[in-house]
Amino acid sequence: MSEAGGGRGSGSSVPQRAPWSLVAATAALCLVSATSVWTAGAAPMSREEKQKLGNQVLEMFDHAYGNYMEHAYPADELMPLTCRGRIRGQEPSRGDVDDALGKFSLTLIDSLDTLVVLNKTKEFEDAVRKVLRDVNLDNDVVVSVFETNIRVLGGLLGGHSLAIMLKEKGEYMQWYNDELLQMAKQLGYKLLPAFNTTSGLPYPRINLKFGIRKPEARTGTETDTCTACAGTLILEFAALSRFTGATIFEEYARKALDFLWEKRQRSSNLVGVTINIHTGDWVRKDSGVGAGIDSYYEYLLKAYVLLGDDSFLERFNTHYDAIMRYISQPPLLLDVHIHKPMLNARTWMDALLAFFPGLQVLKGDIRPAIETHEMLYQVIKKHNFLPEAFTTDFRVHWAQHPLRPEFAESTYFLYKATGDPYYLEVGKTLIENLNKYARVPCGFAAMKDVRTGSHEDRMDSFFLAEMFKYLYLLFADKEDIIFDIEDYIFTTEAHLLPLWLSTTNQRVSKKNTTSEYTELDDSNFDWTCPNTQILFPNDPLYAQSIREPLKNVVDKSCPRGIIRVEESLRSGAKPPLRARDFMATNPEHLEILKKMGVSLIHLKDGRVQLVQHAIQTRGFVASSKPYNGCSELTNPEAVMGKIALIQRGQCMFAEKARNIQNAGAIGGIVIDDNEGSSSDTAPLFQMAGDGKDTDDITIPMLFLFSKEGGIILDAIREYEEVEVLLSDKAKDRDPEMENEEQPSSENDSQSAEQIASRSQEIDLVDQESPEESSVNSHPEALSPVDTDSAASVSSSEQDSNPMENLETTSLDGECTDLDNQLQEQPETEEDSNPNVSWGKKAQPIDSILADWNEDIEAFEMMDKDEL
Ligand code: DMJ
Q: Disordered: where is this region (predicted)?
């Protein structure tokens, strides 16, 4: 045995609640497959088919790993498009992403235990020898403490765990003498200086050679770190302590966790995304289960499983209750503010949260796990991969996809929990998509844009550490793996740590930590890590019955986006029209424009001009009661036939829209309750539905930040009645002004909402010159066409138009995402047109067309005058 001084079953006391081996065994039960209970639903997959898919995973791994070893090693990562190694300093910096690269052959270390899981024992033996021979952990490189911990320390410990397992079996690794563990210990000591803060939270970065704060270190001045960065150390650090007997690692990681726990927001029991490592103040107060926080929660529950410390379970359960109360809006998981947890902080989700259903399986909360997983799967079916971020109506918010494994992870755990062959089919789709869209001759390339299928020259090490492990395990039967996977726990990077560590070297005294141990009541253990055979005894269709109502949640919300051309040809569906293919003479293309509310006018000099048509709702405003609009209005007579003003917060926008619509309002304006918020400084904001059907909502809705909303509120205070015009971005004409105004182009961000009082018109509209509104006949010139609804307010009292940057959203009935209409390969968030639309347009089509004809006539007149 190693210098750890403790082998299987050794160690001192065990937790009060139960012999720890029992807890570990319970944990293992989480992974017990329930295949035997299947009777109907998705067709069962034959052993042959599963083996075929397993072999396919092996072949894919060989392709990725083989190319890394051949063309990149000893570099940290493979660049699969240019087929060479990524060496830090030699490639243009990618910012924080590069902090994972420490010139320590990252991909090789991260792949070690995957080799054993995939039954490539010989290759594992070779890989370990290479690590011992080639890897230097003393480079003058600034690395991320978090990434180095989960990938390198975790990789070395996972490799060590399986090396000693193999050695014990007596065939492979007979020469092994804990060398990987020695390296892990060396690395552990290198990371310790990062914890030299008063809080005990680690600095986010460290120089492997010089540590922190020396001039040569080039780091140590940071003040903030992410919660996950500080809270995802305990498994690796405790394993290192327990393997080696050096308690300091576990102590440091516990101290950081204790501090985070103390700093949780006490009324919501949530944590923010980033924290000041010196003061403990929350720097970012938004809270979710994805980027920046994710593995903090994961490690609390897994620390309970691995270390047998009930206080971790208690903390996890407290947070979990808060997550389910505020963040979980099944099937969505939406970020909220820690101080105002009823307020959504975002209307989009990030891809990292896809791990959460897997964690919910470990917690034993299967229903929401199935729901969220199903929602994510539908997003994947729509875009082939999970985009880095997607909106609540499942549009792409950030189109990149670096081959993240979280969804495969959750698929694996859900399959183990339910035994439902549906999840095998899901895995099969993942394999197909990877081969079809990400595979390149020299490995697998990250997707730069899931909508266009473009690639990035990048294959992250976690792709080998995690993706292949989860996919292989999904299709593997017990006999396909040379050891019992249920004796191990997966770290966040899917490295394997043996559960027997729970009873080994338990020398870290809880007195060293700030939190007191209290005996937990039994409710804390309810469903934690349940026996799945108890969960699904009589109802093999349980999972299916939960998925069924969500079957069309994505398509219903918005029709499928980009269909690859070849795919659509195969399916007979029409491929989307790309801007570069647009022909001004093609009636079908014009029809598409028309549906977008855009008309095209041929000018005499051969240019074409685009006109976007306003969709307008005009009316007097009235405040709703209750002002938040979250329940039936008590003043329907006041809002009937008017545009209702409602305060943001406390319920979904859809709920507000329904309540004012039921009271007879013809539109709604939601005003941000965050005092001081303004479109000048606030990021793009979108209103969203709650993921459910919103077809019943037919009135237009508009969101205004507090500064802009204040203009309306001030006007109400000053004048008895205030009339507003809700309209699309295009210039709208007040009848009185119509003659004076020129039509505008779609680029115009100027006024569309006018505030007028009975006695005085407050409105003033800036106009673009007609030249500015013209576009030339190159089809690319169509790209700025934007059918988003928006509004702006302009007041004569203001020097500049305060609404120039106003971000607003109209809840109209059509998906305004250009993906389906006119695709111009968007690159940026803004290009992806993430504004949400739901409900129905208020204006009947006839009147839209009438407006349209008027516009065309106006243009024709102008055309004559000008040319
Ligand atoms: C991995 O390195 C780990 O799973 C981490 O916890 C978060 N993200 C990446 C993969 O997406």
A: 727-843
